[in-house]
Amino acid sequence: MRMDRIVALMKELKSKNLALPIWFEEGALKVIDQLKLPFQEEVYTLHDVSELAKAIKNMNIRGSGAIGICGVYGILLAALKSNGKKEKILEAASLLKSTRPTAVNLMKTIDEMVSVAEGSSEDIVEKVEQKAVDILKRQLQFEYDLGAHGAELINDGDTIMTHCHSGALGGSGFGGRALSVIRTAFEQGKKIHVYTCETRPYLQGARITAYELKKFGIPHTLITDGMSGYFMNQGYIQKVVVGSDRVAGNGDLANKIGTYNHALAAKANGIPFYTATSSHTIDFLTKSGKDIEVEMRNGDEVVYLNGSRIAPEGTHALYPSFDITPNELITGIITEIGVIQSPYDRNLKKLANNNPVTI
Fold first, then answer.
1. Splitting the chain (359 residues) into consecutive groups of 10 residues, what average pLDDT does each group show?
2. Contact, 348 vs 357, CB < 8 A?
């Protein structure tokens, strides 16, 4: 099958100044191995959905936006490889959903892709391909739009702190979530400086955020996770902008572990704390953060660093991959439609109903 639509889109995307985390090429998927960054830009070729699921689970590819579009490519690949057999597409959907349970983007995107898998096998392949093109274009436009809305909050001369990696390789290629805001403000000519937390235990901030900030030419400084309160208290930081893996219907935020601590420090020091997200990441079926399933990962990821043990043998470690930041600590939720502010339970409903949002 020729896949003319998706091939044409890949050509278009590669003509832009994007850092694509995953793309379709010659009937397979190409993925940048984020575990090898910043020192190796290694590209994997994935031929089936089981390989993609493993890459997501092992965090070779990660970030809420990127995981979401993995759902697009995964269902597309399943439809192509099975010649449009719906049962195979549903099997692929179930496998992909099991990889990162906190990532609502993945769940929603897969459901949207599967929803068009009706009709003859040939019809299914064609419908899945067209839906993939539509979603990929939409998600990239989300990044441009939320970047524009978020940049309005950034003043010339601001120093902005971010946590983990919420950038181009964690999204659709422009800036993901938080870095869409930061990159847009920088490209507008605002003189900004970014403090990026290293983000234990996988060091996404040190490895990937710093890598992207350098690539975009944005001035930045690396700090450890435990330094944020000090630098806020000493006046180094004017804004905090982080990404999101899920936002509950009341505005509670699930993001990389450590986000909650930064939000507490920001509140104590009177510093605005924002999360940048697409409307797709807002889970209107989840009433509050208490209802969000937090993924518990293998404790070995804490006691090992780059394959070397950093704690004594027999030391037990815990690794909740995310924490929950209560809505009262959040100054605003930056979306592709606008910046949503408290009361979140009421204002998020406007977004759910596609009504105008107060900016």
1. 87 92 94 93 94 94 89 95 93 94 85 93 92 94 95 98 94 93 98 97 94 96 98 98 94 97 98 93 92 93 91 96 97 94 90 51
2. no
3-state secondary structure 153-200: CCCCCCEEEECCCCCHHHCCCCCCCHHHHHHHHHHCCCCCEEEEECCC
CA distances (Å), origin 315, targets 297, 303, 306: 16, 8, 18
Q: Half-sphere exposure (CA, 13 Å, Cβ side) for 24? A: 28
Helix, strand, coil percent content, the chain, rounded in steps of 5: 45, 15, 40
Cα dihedral 51→53→56→61 (10° resolution): 40
Q: Are strands 220-223 and 43-46 parallel, antiparallel or unpaired?
A: unpaired
Mention every residue, 6+ apart, whose C-beta is less than 8 A from residue 308.
none
Catalytic residues: 245
CB 154 within 8 A of CB 160: yes
- The pair of structure tokens assigned to 148 is 């524009």
Q: Please return the burial class of 8, using the count of CB atoms within 10 Å of its CB with bins 0-12, 13-18 and 19+.
A: exposed
